[in-house]
Amino acid sequence: xxxxxxxxxxxxxxxxxxxxxxxxxxxxxxxxxxxxxxxxxxxxxxxxxxxxxxxxxxxxxxxxxxxxxxxxxxxxxxxxxxxxxxxxxxxxxxxxxxxxxxxxxxxxxxxxxxxxxxxxxxxxxxxxxxxxxxxxxxxxxxxxxxxxxxxxxxxxxxxxxxxxxxxxxxxxxxxxxxxxxxxxxxxxxxxxxxxxxxxxxxxxxxxxxxxxxxxxxxxxxxxxxxxxxxxxxxxxxxxxxxxxxxxxxxxxxxxx
Amino acid sequence: xxxxxxxxxxxxxxxxxxxxxxxxxxxxxxxxxxxxxxxxxxxxxxxxxxxxxxxxxxxxxxxxxxxxxxxxxxxxxxxxxxxxxxxxxxxxxxxxxxxxxxxxxxxxxxxxxxxxxxxxxxxxxxxxxxxxxxxxxxxxxxxxxxxxxxxxxxxxxxxxxxxxxxxxxxxxxxxxxxxxxxxxxxxxxxxxxxxx
Lengths: 256, 196
Prior knowledge:
The structure holds two protein chains of two kinds.
Chain A: E1 5-13, E2 16-18, E3 28-30, H1 32-41, E4 47-51, H2 63-72, E5 77-80, H3 86-94, E6 99-102, H4 104-108, H5 111-120, E7 125-133, E8 141-145, E9 150-155, H6 156-166, E10 170-174, H7 187-196, E11 201-204, H8 210-219, E12 224-227, H9 229-232, H10 238-247
Parallel strand pairs in A: 1-4, 1-12, 4-5, 5-6, 6-7, 7-10, 10-11, 11-12
Antiparallel strand pairs in A: 1-2, 2-3, 7-8, 8-9
Chain B: E1 2-5, H1 13-21, E2 27-29, H2 32-37, E3 40-43, H3 49-58, H4 62-71, E4 74-77, H5 79-82, E5 87-88, E6 94-95, E7 103-106, E8 117-125, E9 132-138, E10 140-142, E11 148-154, E12 157-165, E13 168-171, H6 179-195
Parallel strand pairs in B: 1-2, 1-3, 3-4, 4-13, 5-7
Antiparallel strand pairs in B: 5-6, 7-10, 8-9, 8-11, 11-12, 12-13
């Protein structure tokens, strides 16, 4: 059986993993390579890195970190933040990343999804999206951009469909409402998108306990889920989450 | 010397790093002469079968790759496994290398199964080997044939995820991205071919 993936997410700033409080009061969590090796050995199915200040500082993504991670871990990983062009995507992929993730860039220039998919294959192109609850939208959720700061007026479900038509091979649904709450994933929009598109959907934002993963896989039909704070702090391990999933009957990779 | 064949079908960085982790410095090459004199040949690949075959032809690599697959330690990965078969349905159909009998077909559209098949799935061996999970990314899958040594199931289809023939081993999954299990397969490939 195809297993449900658990993906630790690391926000990287100037070569260090930081606590995901965007743009302010960042707390140093450690070295991205060391943390990657730890997570890979500990059962992570994939990794994702966001260079959280690259866009704001208008500089390209830190390729040195990408290459060092690729040399040290032998599982797939995605990289986002600071990608402004197909040339940037190419640098990241040639450095050893399996996937590149775009968010605000795709909102401003949707054609980047098509161009990226044509050059690298759609399996390499991840669309990150940050929907926020808004009852006025047809699906009940509006897309935000630039780290939640900008409301776009775009319907989240509409955007997901269009992005897949253009070339996105996977969608990370990061709920603005759930992000940082540790009270569980936002099930409704995750489920709507998972059922509407023919590519894998990754749930993101709100994980606080192993049970939250069981819920998002069983009730929202996500293909994968992102974990951050609850494992970065050492409160839980990937294995804690996976044992819980396995006991709930969810196909889980336990042999690592 | 281990040659990794570069025929413009995808990124070879991860393959290089995985072998480096096992202490093997590989030579990435597009040269038929280098492939012809390599002790071991790694034949990776991501992308479409038709353009891969066109690239192999224009680089003059078809004979060198066929010869290596038939006579020397040889490791095919992903598209590099698929084009060892006789024919692929991709892009309206294309004849491929024909080293392994059988055809490569697209996964059927089945409710609840997304294509590409992406993620960790189990490979069940036909011997006493236990089933283990490896990382897959593909939209087309190969028939089961007499050389199939690993089978995986997705979207209601059982397909070849590993084949072995003589000194050739080829897999649909990506050993270079399959963590410890994947490195184990690469290590076995290096060791078998060293002792052979």
